[in-house]
Amino acid sequence: MGPHRTLMSLPRSTPSSLPPHPAPGTLLSGAELLVCALEAEGVEVIFGHPGGAVIKIYDALATLNPSFQHVLVRHEQGGTHAAEGYAKATGRVGTVLVTSGPGATNCVTGIADAYMDSIPLVVFTGQVPVPAIGNDAFQETDTIGVTRSITKHSFQVRRVEDLTWMVRAAYTIARTGRPGPVVVDLPKDVLLDQAPFVIPDDTAIRARIRGYQPEVSIDPDKIAQAAAMLRQAERPLLYVGGGTLSGHADAELKQLAHTTGIPVTTTLHGLGAFPEDDPLSLGMLGMHGTWYANMAVQHCDLLIAVGARFDDRVTGKLEAWAPHAKVIHFDIDQACISKNVWCDCAIRGHVKDALAALLPHTEPLALTPWREQLAAWREQAPLTVEDDDQLRAQTVIRLLRDQTQGDAVVITDVGQHQMWTAQYFQYVHPRSHITSGGLGTMGFSLPAAMGAAFGLRAQGVDRPVLSISGDGGFVMNAQELGVIAKHRLPVKIVVINNQYLGMVRQWQELFHDERYSHTDLADTNPDFGKLAEAFGIPAYYAETPTEAQEAIDAAWTHTDGPVLIEFRVLKEDMVFPMVPAGAATEDMITARFED
Amino acid sequence: MPDSSLTSQQILRKQEMGEPVYSDADEHVHRHIIMVMLENHLGALNRVINLFSQRGFNLESVAVGETNDPAISRLTLVTTGNDRIIKQVLRQLNNLVDTLAVEDLTAHEYVERELLLLRVRYTELNRPAIMNTADIFRAKVVDITTESMTFQVTGPTKKVNAFLGLMAEYGILEVARSGRIAMKRALVFGD
Questions:
Q1: Rg of chain A over CA atoms, in angstroms?
Q2: By three-state DSSP, how is residue A500 classified?
Q3: Nearest Cβ partner of A319 from B16, B91, B92?
Q4: Which residues in chain A touch residue B87, judged by CB atoms under 8 angstroms apart?
């Protein structure tokens, strides 16, 4: 493995540095204006699916031959997840283009997913002509209305003159502040109307969206207060979330931890923000976090939340969570501050700037007793895998980790395999872990891995992409296998097959008297290898630990295209430790109940 | 405001014990009048209203009108909640792209008014009594038939409610209320 290539140092989209396609002032149709505006925005890849309302845009793509790539996905939900994967892997804004009505509604799950996980997306949806809006026209949906509560903002372009500024404003809003999805609704007649080509500059955009003020200056008094709280703490703990990664603050975080000696635990989305092979790392906290990370939370006297939002999957029962801790909260979103847990010191602004402001006030802290306590807890209940002849998902994750040395972009789906990957993959690089955390969307992994692979390819970054799904979620967006095959994307598609909706089955075993209501998938699962082969993708499978290593070795010989590996794992395994939903963190379950 | 010597979890425990920190108990839930200056953009008003159902906030009344600048609308929202909820309401409103200013007027001295149109049944017998009450409230008759009168009343919501209560016994036929509008006082004397 070569040296790790950081993606965050890559330039962000700089529209002004790219020559606009036509000369300013050229009279163009709305469809042509959109294509030129995307090019001027520096878009690299868009994921789309044509239809009646956007056919003019597809015509413009054919005639203008823009520099960006259009990827024809096989379902709009796949396209939206692909754009999410692209955005997470590259740090840029993902772009989706779909038609009206069903094209737009198929995007809803992906938009909601991006909203929950603060992923910057711009989704262009077709719309019936302005005079037909509201008349129940063919393929009409009130897309703005349907997506209102799952978007950061939305625009409907009612006049062709507004198109280019709304496109730029959409990208600006999606990318800045707390990132999120923006919908731009494009009525068909606006795509036919003509207007002179103008790309407004940043000042003009700021004037158009003057109510949007994402830039916040860091309050030096709050920094001083936080520094004083750090100095007084005896048992401090850094609680690191996805905002640290989207805010490109992992270097500052590392420096803060190493200067002060404060241990670090990360959320599901924070994985990779702090290397897990560092002695200060406690791994993930929360419902399926490590026992020692959760013990650290329960006993710390100062909790420093960095770009994290105190989700219920992290805190469990709020009243019993971190009972001794004062709280410092770094976040860019004012609405996250004191939303779930009241914080003693809130520092609003870019996490990167805030940590950089705090660093000069930090010094090594005397934390030896605390660190010894943590080491003792770590020894008491480490994450282990039972060593027998049975193939377990945890073993598979460890083998994949060893194969890649952690230098891979791993995209997981939702369920047991997602938690096992989070627990056992031992992430060491930022932007190496992508998953659907907030919304918990099954079917996320395969299309998101596709989008991540397109992003890495567009940026010339050569890192393996691993899509890890369960047998339940994999089938939900399996249609994108064809797209992955067509573009020879070097994605290692891993299916952890336990023939169950394993996480639901686990809850049924633990909390619903072992009534396994509709969680057995054995009768409806396809032959995963044959399914892949039907799309032209070679496939392997494994049933024992030895076979697993052989299958991985064989799969890794395919370097110029996708390959699928199905691991038929132990059927009724469970994810531990577990804090039951709504329970106190102290009431963690660490092993199966014995009768 | 929460005592800064308490940890967040101690505050939550106080809440469970019904202490006045973030309690949801009735006595800690207050009515707030919030002013929002909003871009007069397509869908901007929808986003404000939607926020309340999306986030589970209460919304008692909304009054909207254009300001002297036709590009800007002014909303007066009435909502209820404890301190934590109201802070969330203000922060979420501030986060909207189209909001230009958000202010909790309840935190200041302010004037509030509401307009009521009320059609009430009358007879020759009770007409003097009705007119007498109307005079006390400075209500104006804006429409009249042989059987009913329509009054216009303006004032703080409490006054409007009182007038409604007094008219109830005569037989109210129709009611329309504008919702509150409010403005911060420009000058406040004394404490």
A1: 24
A2: strand
A3: B16
A4: 338
